[in-house]
Automatic annotation (TrEMBL):
Residues 1-135 form the DAGKc domain. Its cofactor is Mg(2+). Keywords: Kinase, Transferase. InterPro entries: ATP-NAD_kinase_N, Diacylglycerol_kinase_cat_dom, Lipid_Phosphate_FormReg, NAD/diacylglycerol_kinase_sf. SUPFAM superfamilies: NAD kinase/diacylglycerol kinase-like. This is Diacylglycerol kinase family enzyme. Belongs to the diacylglycerol/lipid kinase family. It comes from the Bacteria. One of its GO terms (cellular component) is plasma membrane.
Length: 312
């Protein structure tokens, strides 16, 4: 088996020494070629090259941004080529996709689990989401968001450029700050139309998910769509009104084991859908897999069944 091992040196929770240990552990089981990312989008290029050059496996060590790039590289390789299997190891601050697969959050323990799966030949097909807009045609692994969460991601990225380290505390602090400032979170310019369903207007925040959780608050999973699964279609959650008391109650529910129920006051949700169209009366912040893409006014979402073979 030929494998390409893509590492992100900017990953927030792995040191160079830890990366060396992990690479050596994988290389002791299978022959690997090591490639290190050097700029945004490089992991996508490397993964696409792996498919073109006939690699059977791509391994990555990085955060959710690295995973998103690798997935898009694999899925945009020429369709007639065999697509490599993919093994993702956690190296970021959240690692939502990797943890949703059931792998440990610790990169060394996750490496051990992946090596066991390689030895046993265990693989899992997962569905993905795909977005299309005037500016985009990309895949996402666990979530895409309009409004509040995208504003948070945008501000976190701005803080990171200033030298701040991404952490759950930074995300939580910015989310609370933007909520209490109030202007953007109370903008009810969003609309959602599920495939074959009815249009819902006057929404302030929309998140479309491919699995649960939507994100993590440290070790705690945050679940606005607790029934979302990799084996099903897309789910979505939207706020229909904003009040401090009701939003605090919804956040408490999201962070419980059960997550938010399918129906309730102040929100609407959808389960196992083929797709959605989300539009905005004015440009709103938009993100996928924790990466800010910029303001958008219309995005179409599609579920892509069994898009990827994961080693896990």
């Amino acid at each position: 088996m030929r494998a390409l091992f893509i590492t992100n040196p900017q990953a927030t929770t792995t040191t160079p020494r830890a990366r060396d240990v992990i690479v050596r552990a994988v290389a002791s089981d299978i022959p690997v070629e090591l490639a290190q990312t050097e700029y945004p989008g490089h992991a996508e290029e490397l993964a696409r090259r792996a498919a073109v050059e006939g690699y059977e496996l791509v391994v990555s060590l990085g955060g959710d941004g690295t995973v998103n790039e690798v997935v898009n590289g694999l899925l945009t390789a020429p369709a007639e080529l065999p697509r490599p299997s993919y093994a993702a190891l956690p190296g970021g601050s959240a690692n939502v996709f990797i943890r949703a697969l059931g792998l440990p959050a610790d990169p060394v323990e996750a490496t051990g689990a992946v090596l066991e799966a390689l030895r046993s030949g265990h693989q899992r097909h997962v569905s993905l989401g795909r977005i299309e807009s005037e500016k985009d045609d990309r895949y996402f692994t666990f979530c895409a968001g309009f409004g509040w969460d995208a504003d948070v991601v945008h501000e976190v990225e701005r803080q990171r450029r200033r030298g701040r380290r991404a952490s759950p505390a930074l995300y939580m602090g910015i989310a609370l700050k933007l909520f209490f400032e109030g202007n953007r979170i109370r903008d009810t310019s969003l609309r959602v139309e599920p495939a074959g369903g009815s249009l819902v207007n006057d929404l302030s925040f929309v998140v479309v998910t491919n699995t649960t959780p939507w994100t993590y608050a440290g070790a705690v999973p945050v679940q606005p769509t607790p029934r979302s699964r990799f084996e099903l279609g897309l789910d979505a959650f939207a706020l229909t009104r904003i009040s401090t008391v009701r939003t605090a109650e919804l956040l408490r529910q999201m962070m419980s084991k059960q997550g938010v129920g399918p129906a309730g006051r102040g929100y609407v949700s959808w389960h196992d859908q083929e797709g959605f169209e989300v539009t905005a009366r004015r440009p709103r912040a938009f993100q996928i897999d924790g990466e800010y893409l910029g303001p958008r006014t219309r995005v179409v979402f599609h579920s892509v069944p069994k898009a990827l073979r994961m080693v896990c």
